[in-house]
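Lecture 7 notes: from sequence to structure.
We start with the chain below.
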Amino acid sequence: MIPVIDWKRAKGERSALVMEIGSACRNPGFFILKNPDVELALRLEVFETADNFFDLPTNEKQKVSILNTPHFRGWGAKGDESLDETQPQIDTKETFNVGLDLSPNDPRVLAGEPFRGLNQWPDIPGFRECLLAYYDAAQAQGLNILSMIAEDLGLPPDHFNALFEDPLSALRMLRYPAATGATNEIGAGAHTDYGAITLLMTDGEPGLQVRPRDGDWVDVPSVENAYVVNIGDSMMRWSNDIYVSTPHRVLPPKNTRRSVAFFVEANPNTIVEAFPGTGTPKYPPIRAADYLQSRLDATYAPKETT
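Predicted structure tokens for the same chain:
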């Protein structure tokens, strides 16, 4: 069962909300957050912006292909990515990724630091402005959720703030084509997310499933005016497995399905290691950027197809 938590209670019932979020993070590692701070009008505008991009001819989208850059920014075509590293299927979805927006003169860009490249922007009026506004709003929402997670783990509410300055956070728009009935077809293969938490907007079309601890695959329900929130691998490592990074997948939908994910990630140089008081560490310390790179390398590794 995926719990539904009302963010409106954040001000008046914070202690109770901290307990509910903490319980959801332990198991199933997913919850649905109703009435978030991010304005509904902006969220709807992002979906419209995504439609405007994905409806472009392929040759236009290829101009901003994610394969043009080593920094994982831009358009991912069907077949560019395969999230389930253990299976031969290639994901049918297409994507568009946006990271922290930096100036061409930024020293990190000039030095070619990993994940510090330039965003790629298609020639669509208002596209860049809409997505950067949403990036900032979603990052703020994510930090507010992290403040409650910090309290649940016995840390100061602002514990994560410094760790998430100039973050690796990524905005990803996704579109899944309707199922064709082909053998072994998958919208997005089974995987866990890589960062701290993920905020997901969906258009209501079914397809998303999660597999909780000691459980089987279950459908994630659609709730109006809400995010689907889940724990990522980095938060599981910080919590030393107190929290769970739950596998999830997207089945081929009956109709075209759209979603928008925001991956709340730390600063590249943040060390991800077990917090004090969580027991003997189960994972070695690792830089946030190094962990992310290792996971993305596997995701984009070529696969044989039949």
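Points to note: The radius of gyration is 18 Å. The chain has one domain: 4-299.
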